[in-house]
Task: structure prediction
Amino acid sequence: MALVPLLQINDISLTFGGEPVFHELSLVVQPGDRVALVGRNGSGKSTLMKVMAGLVEPDHGDRIVPPGISTGYMEQDPDLTGFATLGEYAMHGLDPSELYKVERAGEGLKFDPDRPVGTASGGERRRAALARLMAQDPDLMLLDEPTNHLDIEAIGWLEDELKRTRKGFVLISHDRRFLSELTRATLWIDRGQVRRQEKGFDAFEAWRDKTWEDEDLQRHKMDRKIKSEARWAVEGISARRKRNMGRVRALQDLRSERAAMIRRQDTAAMELASGPKSGRKVIEATGLTKTFGDTTIVRNFSLTVQRGDRVAFVGPNGVGKTTLIRMLMGEIEPDAGTVKLGTNLVPAVFDQTRAQLNDDLTLWENLTGDPEMRVSGKADQIMVRGAPKHVVGYLKEFLFDERQARAPVRSLSGGEKARLLLARIMARESNLLVLDEPTNDLDVETLDLLQDLLGEYDGTVLLISHDRDFLDRVASTTVAMEGRGRATVYAGGWSDYRAQRGEDAPEATAAKSAPKAAPKAAAAPKQKTGLSFTEKHRLDELPAEIDRLTAEIAKLEELMADPDLFTREPVKFKKASEALVARQTALAEAEDLWLELSEKAEAG
Result:
């Protein structure tokens, strides 16, 4: 007997502002479905979810929910108008006897039901909306970015709850680990079309890349066929006019079909430029203690950050991660202890509150109004890594079009605001990046690019994030802040920290369901190398860095071999000369360090 779908959408079309969002789109959600809804920022994920929830009416098509089926929707910006407290909002529509459900969800998600709505932050409002949905327990849950503003503990609680439920859900999230743990099917919105694969998010990227590869091949074949047919038309059309007009019409159809092919949206052309090299020791903190009222942020905390380290700070919301970083940066004085900053530091800061952006100004004004980016006498240009660039041209590198450049920042989505803030940061050279929740709202492709840029960045990174996968990919050191002043330094990323704590890392959890391997006790003991974790990590990185520097030096030497370069382009010659000297110096330092660490490893 066939199951009755929880939700069915038939041939919907939707247009916003003259631009088609969807055309003749259909989909079905079955009982027990666990679906990832994925797509680029701006592809229409949230809009489609609102159509699924019945909050947005399509221009054409039908939304069908069978009688007796309940749906619940958690939106990104819940409207709490008319409610005095978060608890009152979360209880709306529930029987008083179900208060325990809200309290349980509130405990797991860490929100205070007594908090007045007027003083609640955006994150607290979202947690209340999520608690309300979890307490309602509908047949179909529609969850739009539920992990934003949740700390790792709350994400873990929600993950466990969704694993246990037998209800269906559709989930929008940019948290890879969260999606991989929970989903068994994937809906992919791409250029107004929705494709479905009966595999979870783990299989998405391979599927996406294969789809794009097939499209590229199809386009290439069509382009060759059009060229061939066009050549035939030019060379022989007059001699065969009556007999072959059908072939000419076929050529016109081919051209129309090729023109209708929608090209994929480009990846943001982000670039991180390292400034002058900092000293080898970037931050040395000794015996830090800081208390606000009855709350102790850290007690007797020490940390040394070397050039090139990627240090992640993890812990519950409100534990003091941002405060600790501000102490390490010298912005807040500790009650006790000392902080010594290294030499020649050029920091750049990504603020989780987006306070550097003025919502009332346009994207254009946010960039040209920055004193550090302004070009004297040029209202349409900004300084980008030391060179003037047109504002719109630079914004296009971050996937903004000219129309958006003139729009106010408040009109942007969360992901678009994050990209705009990255655009401001990346316009400057730096050697110390402070990234406070940079992963919120960014799509998977932009996260991939950011991760790669951080991997290639020559400077040092201080990072706050609740994205476990991103932490594992980026961090070389993790500072775990556990409350009551406890802050402990661990080698590696999130999974390494969990393993050192003796807790199940996600990889260990996944291994439990895999075929049994040799017992853990039988594993070969790790070889002692005489190196610290950071030193070993640096030793592993150095060969690739040396190869890169060698290649860059070869390119610069080839450029400067042009005898007319100095006369023709003196500025370019000067920059190339300075770059050559800098890379030769960096290569010598890298080779010396590799030799030093190699000898230390052998001695160990």
